[in-house]
Amino acid sequence: MVNLKVRIGSLELSNPIMSASGTFGYGLEFADKLDLKKIGAFVTKGLSLKKRLGNQMPRICETPAGMINSIGLENVGMDAFETEKLPLIHKTGAVVMANFFGETEEEYVESARRLEAMDGVHALEMNVSCPNVEKGGIEFGSDPAFLEKLTKAVKKVVKKPLIVKLSPNVADIRPFASAVENGGGDAISAINTLKGMSIDVKSRTPKIKRVFGGLSGPAIKPVALRMVYECCNTVKIPVIGIGGIASLNDALEFLMAGATAVQIGTMNFVEPEICQRIAGELSAWCVAEGVSDITTVTGSLKIA
Amino acid sequence: MVNLKVRIGSLELSNPIMSASGTFGYGLEFADKLDLKKIGAFVTKGLSLKKRLGNQMPRICETPAGMINSIGLENVGMDAFETEKLPLIHKTGAVVMANFFGETEEEYVESARRLEAMDGVHALEMNVSCPNVEKGGIEFGSDPAFLEKLTKAVKKVVKKPLIVKLSPNVADIRPFASAVENGGGDAISAINTLKGMSIDVKSRTPKIKRVFGGLSGPAIKPVALRMVYECCNTVKIPVIGIGGIASLNDALEFLMAGATAVQIGTMNFVEPEICQRIAGELSAWCVAEGVSDITTVTGSLKIA
Amino acid sequence: MKPKILRNVPMGKRYRMIDFEWPDDNAQPGQFVMIRVTDSVDPLLRRPMSIAGLANGRMSIVCAVLGKGTAILSEKSEGDFLDVTGPYGVGFNPPESETALLCVMGGVGTAPFLFLKSRSNKKIIAFYGAADKDGLGIQTKFDEMHFSTVDGSVGTKGLVTDILLAHPEIKNKNAFLLACGPKGMLKAVDQICVREKIQGELSLEERMGCGFGVCLGCMVETDEGNKRVCVEGPVFKAGTVKW
Amino acid sequence: MKPKILRNVPMGKRYRMIDFEWPDDNAQPGQFVMIRVTDSVDPLLRRPMSIAGLANGRMSIVCAVLGKGTAILSEKSEGDFLDVTGPYGVGFNPPESETALLCVMGGVGTAPFLFLKSRSNKKIIAFYGAADKDGLGIQTKFDEMHFSTVDGSVGTKGLVTDILLAHPEIKNKNAFLLACGPKGMLKAVDQICVREKIQGELSLEERMGCGFGVCLGCMVETDEGNKRVCVEGPVFKAGTVKW
Ligand SMILES: Cc1cc2nc3c(=O)[nH]c(=O)nc-3n(C[C@H](O)[C@H](O)[C@H](O)COP(=O)(O)OP(=O)(O)OC[C@H]3O[C@@H](n4cnc5c(N)ncnc54)[C@H](O)[C@@H]3O)c2cc1C
Ligand SMILES: Cc1cc2nc3c(=O)[nH]c(=O)nc-3n(C[C@H](O)[C@H](O)[C@H](O)COP(=O)(O)OP(=O)(O)OC[C@H]3O[C@@H](n4cnc5c(N)ncnc54)[C@H](O)[C@@H]3O)c2cc1C
Ligand SMILES: Cc1cc2nc3c(=O)[nH]c(=O)nc-3n(C[C@H](O)[C@H](O)[C@H](O)COP(=O)(O)O)c2cc1C
Ligand SMILES: Cc1cc2nc3c(=O)[nH]c(=O)nc-3n(C[C@H](O)[C@H](O)[C@H](O)COP(=O)(O)O)c2cc1C
Ligand code: FES
Ligand code: FES
Fold first, then answer.
1. ipTM, 2 decimals?
2. Of A59, C120, C123, D226, which one has the greatest count of Cβ atoms within 10 A?
3. Torsion of CA B292, B295, B301, B302, to 10 degrees
4. Per-residue pLDDT tens digits for A9-31
5. Which residues in chain B are contacts of C39 at CB distance < 8 A?
6. Residue D206 Cα, ligand 6 centroid: separation in angstroms?
7. Predicted pLDDT of residue D97
8. What's D77-115 look like in SS3?
9. Which of B29, B60, B198 to mutate to test the interface with D (most CBs of D within 10 A)?
C-alpha cells in the first residue's frame, strides 16, 4: 500500500492533490463530476465578510497556454457560505479549505474568526494578493513586514491550520515566505496569478475590462515552479505548489521541488475531473516507482 | 503608400519589426532565410569584451508555449565581432543593434566605447539582466538608482542611440523605466526573460543544468504586454516591446499598448523568416485599415 | 465524453455541420456543450457550441470559424474523436399553450432552432438576418421563413428586426418570441419585446472559461442581479437583461 | 517547406516511417531536418529528425514516439501537410578510399544509415544494439547485419560494443567506423575507436532550439572548443568529443 497522506499543520490530507481557489466554486459544482473524498482537499472561492459582485465584464480571456481573469473576487459572502453552501458541502465528505481576503487588517481578522468558528471548514487559506485600501491600494502581499504583521494578527484568532497564499508579482518571493513563517503561518501556498494583459486588436480595447488581470494556466508553470522551489529552500513550514499544473508529471515536478502538496487551478475548467484523475495516477506512479510514502518524493530533486 | 518608419533616438528604422538578441545570432545565420534589409533592425547576441563560453549543458528546454534558456551569454567577444562578423553583416545592408553586457560598470562602459567606435553598428542595446559581480551577483537591472547611474555612465561615452533592456523579474517595472529615462537613455526595450525552472521527473534533476533559466515565447506575452504598457505610461522615450510575439496580431498588441517598435525572439527558432513575414503583413494591415502612418497605431489602445 | 465524429460537412458558405456520437437524448434546445479541440494546451479552454440536433445516438453542432479554436474544430475529419462535456445551461421554455413561435436568428444563432424544430410540433416562424447572402445556407425548412440581409442580396434589405416588426404576428400579444444571435440583434429584439409587450426568451453569448458555473467569467447583469450565462442561462427572459 | 505526407507506416514495434514530398535530392546522410508538428504554440519548438532516405521527390524519416511532439508527428495521416526546414548540419564523410564501413547503431540511430546505404556503394557492416526485440524491425538489409540485445531475445546477448569488438574488421586499422544512437553507446564506441586506433565518426544528439546555429542550445565540448551540434555536427570525428 502506498501512503499518500500529507500534513498541512495539524490537518492530514489523504493525498497531496487539491483544487485551487476560484477554480472550484464552492465544491458543490463538482459533486457530479468527481468524488470529492478522493482528492486531498478543495479550496473555496475567495470569501469576504460581505457578498461581492466583482468586476465588470469581460473579465476573462484566453492567452497562449493560459488565461487572464479579473473576476474581482466575486463571492457569496460569509453568511451565505455558512448557511447555504457549507451544510451541502459537509454532506459530500470533502476536506474544505476556505480561501478568504479583506481590504483591511480588521476584515482579514474578522473573516478568519468567522471561518474558525465554522464546523466543516478544515483549514484557512489567506489570499494576500488583494489591494489594501488602508495602504492606498498596494497589495497586502507586497511588503514582507506588513505580511508578517497580518499573519500574526490572523493567527492569533485561529487554531485551524492557516495557509498564506503568496503573490508572484514580487522581485523575490523568499522574504515573503519567511514573513509567513515568522508570523506563525502553518503553511505557504504559491503562486497566485501573474499580472498580465491582452488587447483585442480589432476594437483596440483591452480584452479585460479592467485592463489588467491575473495570468494562470500551463503558461506560468516554469515561473511558479521556480518560486515554489525558492520558497521550499527558504522556510521549514510546508509549501503547497500552485501554477499551471495539467498532468501528473507537472504535479510531480512541484513535489520534487519541495512542495508538500499541490493545487490545480485553471485546468479544472478544461477537465473537471482532473484532480481525481491525477490523484489516481499519483498512486499508480508510486507503485510503479516503488515509492511507499509520498513524503519521500517531496524535495527529492537532485542538483548536480 | 504606408509609412512604416519609426524612430529610436536618432536612428530611423524602415519598419518597427526587429529581431531580439540571442535569437538571431549575428544576423549572418539568417542571410539565406530572409532579406535583412526588409526588417527594421536586428539585434546581435549579447556581446562582452572577451569571448565567453557560457553555461554547461543542458541549457535549453521546452515548456508549455515557451522555452527556458540558460545559455550564459556565450558570445564571440568584441574583437571577433568587429573583425569577423561586422564586415560580413555590413554587406547584407542590415540595420544592426549591438546588444552588450558586462559584469562591472567599467566593463559596460568599455563595451559601449568599443561599439560606439565600430562603423556599421547603428545602435546599442544594453542588457542589464546580468549578475553584477561587484554587487554580489545581484542583477544590474534590479535597483533603479544603480540603473540610472549605469545608464548615465554609458551614455557619456556613446552618441549612437542607447537602448536599455529591462528585466521583468521585478515587483514594479516603472521605476526602472524612469531610471533609464532620467539616466539619459534613448529608448527602453522590454522585456527580457522571466526566471523559470523545469524538472525532468524521470531523473529527478533540473532540465536546465544551472537549475534556473529564462522563460521566453508566447507563454510570457500577457506579462510582457502588461509591463510594456506600464513602461509606455511612465516614460516619454520610445519603448520597444518584446515577449512572446508570434503573429502580426501580437505585434499590433504591443504597438497599440504604446510600443514604438517590437522585437521577435523565440519564434525566430520556429519560423526563421517570421520577422520579414510580419513586417510584410503589417504593411498590408495598414493598407486594409487605412493607416497611413504606423506611428498613429502606437498607443492607440482605447480604455473605456 | 470522447465521441467519434460521424460527419463534418459544409453548411452554406460560412458554417460547418458536425455530427458526432452521443449516448442519450437528454438535452433541451438552447442548451450547449463545451468542446475541447486539442489535447495540447493551446488553445487551452473549451469552446461553447449550441446543440443543433440530438437524436438516435447522434448530436449535431453548427460551427462558424471565428478564430483558432473553431478553425481546428472545423478541420476535424469523420472518424476523429472529439472531447465534449455537457449539455450545460438552461434551454428555451416557451409556454405549453403557445402554438406558434417567432424565432429570430442571426449567424450560427440558427443552431438551437434547428434542434427546437426537431423537438417541437409548434409552428415556427423564422426570421433570419445576415450581412449578406454568404451568411445563409444554414436554415432548413422552418414552417415560415423570412430573410433579411443588410446589403439586400437576399430577402428584404435591412435588419432582421424590420421584417420582424412587419410580420402580423408581432401585433398578437399572445405571440411568443425566441432569439439567438449577435448581441446587437438580441438587444434590439429585447427592446421590441418590451415595447410591444411580447413575451420572449433570448439566448445570450459570453466568453466562457468553464461552462458549468465555477469561473464566474460569463456573468450578465439582470434585474435579479448577476447571473452566470452558463448555468442560469444562456436563455434569459426578455426584459430582464441589463444591456 | 510544407510538404505533403505520402506514407506513414509502422516499422517494427516502436517506430514509424514517414515519407513526404521533397523537391530536391540535395542532402547528405547524417544530415537532419527540423519538423514543426503543429500550428499551435504547444509544443512550440521544431523536432530534429535524421533523414532516412531521399530520392525521387520523396524524403523519409523514421520516428520513435518519445513525448508529445513525436506522438503528434506519428499520428499524422497520408495527405496531411508537414512543416519541415533543413536539411541542416554536416553529414558523414567517410574517406573515398574506404570500401567497407562499420556502422554501429541503436534505436532510431539506424535512420541515417538507411539513407547512407541508399547513397553509397561501400560495403556496410551493421551492428545493431537494442534492449529487447521490440527495438528491432527498423533494419533493412545492410550487407552484413549483426544484432545484440541486452536481454538476449535476438542476436547476441549483451551490448552492441561486444559484437563490434568481436568482429574481425575491428582489428583492421584501416577500418572506418560510423555510429549513431544513444549517448552511452556513442561514448563506448568512441572509446573503442581511440583504444583500437580506428578512425570514425559519431552522430550526436542534443536538445535543439533552432537547428541552424543561433540559439546556442545544442553545444558539445570538443577538443577544439564548444561546437554546435546542429551546425558543426551532428557528425563529429571520433576522439574529439569531451564526454
Ligand atoms: C452558449 C454559447 C453557444 C454558442 N454556440 C455556438 C454555435 O452553435 N456555433 C458557433 O459557431 N459558435 C457558437 N458560440 C460561439 C463560439 O463559442 C465562439 O465562436 C468560439 O468560442 C470562438 O473560439 P475561437 O477559438 O474560434 O475564437 P477565438 O477568438 O480565438 O477565441 C478566443 C476565446 O474567446 C472566446 N470567444 C470568442 N468569441 C466568442 C463568442 N462569440 N462567444 C463566446 N466565447 C467567445 C473563446 O471561447 C475563447 O475562449 C457559442 C457561444 C456561447 C457562449
Ligand atoms: C540531430 C538529431 C537527429 C535526430 N533524429 C531522430 C530520428 O531520426 N528519429 C527520431 O525518432 N528521433 C530523432 N531525434 C530525437 C528526436 O528529435 C526527439 O526524440 C524528439 O525531439 C522528442 O520530442 P518529443 O516532443 O516527442 O519529446 P519531449 O520529451 O516532449 O520533447 C521535449 C523537448 O526536448 C527535446 N528532446 C527530447 N528528447 C530529445 C533527444 N533525444 N534529442 C534531441 N532533443 C530532444 C525535444 O526536441 C523538445 O524540444 C534526433 C535528434 C537529433 C538532435
Ligand atoms: C478564474 C480564477 C479565479 C480565481 N480566484 C481566486 C480567488 O478567489 N482566490 C485566490 O486566492 N486565488 C484565485 N485564483 C488563483 C488560483 O487559485 C491559482 O492560484 C492560479 O490560477 C494559478 O494556478 P493555475 O495555473 O493552476 O490556475 C483564481 C484563478 C482563476 C483562474
Ligand atoms: C536562447 C535565447 C538567448 C537569449 N540571449 C539574450 C542575450 O544575449 N541578450 C539579451 O538581452 N536577451 C537575450 N534573450 C532574450 C530575448 O532577446 C528576449 O528578450 C526574450 O526571449 C523574450 O522575447 P521572446 O518571447 O520573443 O523570445 C535570449 C533569449 C533566448 C530565447
Ligand atoms: S463559464 Fe465559467 S461560470 Fe460560466
Ligand atoms: S539548435 Fe540552436 S544552435 Fe544548435
1. 0.96
2. A59
3. -60
4. 999 999 999 999 999 999 999 99
5. none
6. 9
7. 82
8. CCCCECEEEEEECECCCCCCCCCEEEEEEEHHHHHHHHH
9. B60
- Choice between D170 and A120, residue whose per-residue pLDDT is larger: A120
From the CA of A127, the nearest ligand is 3
Cβ distance D68 to C40 less than 8 Å, yes or no, reads yes
Ligand 3 pocket check for A19: Cβ under 6 Å: no
Calculate how far, in angstroms, residue C183's C-alpha sits from the geometric centre of ligand 1. Answer: 13
Q: Active-site residues of B: which are they?
A: 130
Look at the block and give the residue holding cell 425566441.
C178
**Taking the domains of chain C in order of start, what are their residue ranges?**
5-88
Kindly list the residues from chain B whose CB atom is less than 8 angstroms away from the CB atom of residue A246.
Answer: 64
**pTM exceeding the 0.90 threshold for the entire prediction:** yes
B99: contact with D, CB 8 A cutoff: no
- Per the residue annotation, which of A130, A232, A275, A286 is the catalytic one? A130
Q: Which of B204, B209, B212 sits opposite A300 (nearest CB)?
A: B204
A42 touching C (Cβ < 8 Å): no
* Average pLDDT of the residues of chain D: 93
Average pLDDT over residues A142-166: 96
Residues C225-232, mean pLDDT to the nearest whole number:
96
Nearest-angstrom CA–CA distance, D50 and D71: 17
Q: Assign domain D5-88 to a CATH class.
A: mainly beta
Q: Is A220 in the pocket of ligand 3 (CB under 6 A)?
A: yes
Tell me, letter by letter, the H, E, C secondary structure of B146-196: HHHHHHHHHHHHCCCCEEEECCCCCCCCHHHHHHHHHCCCCEEEECCCEEE
How much of chain C exceeds pLDDT 90, in percent? Answer: 72
**Residue B23 Cα to ligand 6 middle (Å):** 10
Question: Region D140-165: what's the mean pLDDT?
Answer: 87
Look at domain B6-52+74-194+217-296 and name its CATH class: alpha beta
Pairing of strands C47-50, C32-36: antiparallel
Q: Which of D90, D210, D220 to mutate to test the pocket of ligand 6 (most atoms within 8 A of CB)?
A: D210
Q: Is C70 left (phi over 0), alpha (psi -120 to 50) or beta?
A: alpha
Specify the range with the lowest mean pLDDT, choosing from A15-29, B4-18, B51-65, D129-143.
D129-143
Beta carbons of D105 and D128 less than 8 angstroms apart: yes
pLDDT digits (tens, 9 = 90+) for B281-296: 999 999 999 999 999 9
Percent of chain A with pLDDT over 90: 93
Q: Closest Cα to residue C36, out of C79, C85, C76, C3?
A: C85
pLDDT single digits (tens) B118-138: 999 999 999 998 776 667 667
Size of interface C-D (CB pairs under 8 A): 14
Alpha carbon of A79 to ligand 4 centroid (Å) = 50
Mean pLDDT calculated for residue range D152-169: 88
